[in-house]
Amino acid sequence: MNKLKKDTTEDKILEAAQTVFIQKGMDGARMQEIANEAGINKALLHYYFRSKQKLFEAIFKKVFNQVFPGLETFIHSELPFDKKLSIFIEKYIDFLLKNPFIPSFILKEIHRDPKFLASVIQSTGVNPKEVFYMLEKEMEAGKIKKMDPKDLLINILALSIFPVAAKPLMEIMFCENDKEAYRNFLVKRKESVRQFILDSIFKEKAG
To answer: What does residue 204 show for φ and ψ, rounded to 5 degrees?
Structure first.
């Protein structure tokens, strides 16, 4: 099979699968539906991906790697900690703004099969212990306040994710159903979340 055609077909399958998985979740999705969405027959779908689970894993890895490609390299880079934190928060919120379906999709799958989801995330090379070690080093050096590093990581994720996950309700409650106004609010949160986190962890106020 021609490589270009192979790549194009695989991309079509991944795009179709993402659409179906987002709508119906892992349990509700059917391979025939994905084949129909991709405009191919089911036999060709099985040629590329032997099972629904393997296809779901491929989709999740693709999506997860978009959050922050090269995360491990970034963690071990020589950038100052406050710069690393600022870049991570900005990129993470940007990603959520471009992919607002991600929070609800992940929450649904967390409740469906958390062990499988954890194994997929770990297979991308993401290791929370690396993040905790980085934070602990900053604490030992006296650069940031001592705290449980798990608290800090959860604070960053929660402050970033909740406004996107709760968008349908918050859009109505805060912005009178004005989608553009709420989006502008989320864009501004990149700076407010960054400053809130930095102010909460540095012994002296960070700029």
So the answer is: -115, 145
* Distance, CA of 112 to chain centre: 18
In contact, 17 and 57? CB cutoff 8 Å: no
pLDDT truncated to tens, each residue of the chain (207 aa)?
555 555 689 999 999 998 898 888 888 899 999 999 999 999 999 999 989 988 988 887 777 777 666 666 777 788 898 898 888 888 888 888 888 888 887 888 788 888 888 887 787 777 888 889 989 999 999 989 999 999 999 999 899 889 988 999 999 999 999 999 999 999 999 999 999 999 999 865 544
Look-up: residue for tokens 């001592």?
146
96: left (phi over 0), alpha (psi -120 to 50) or beta: alpha
Which homologous superfamily is 1-56 in?
Homeodomain-like (1.10.10.60)
Note the pTM of the prediction, 2 decimals: 0.74
The answer to whether residues 34 and 17 touch, using CB atoms and an 8 Å cutoff, is yes
Which residues fall within 8 angstroms of residue 183, CB to CB, at 6 or more apart?
A: 97
The domain limits of the chain are 1-56, 68-201
Superfamily (CATH) of domain 68-201: Tetracycline Repressor, domain 2 (1.10.357.10)
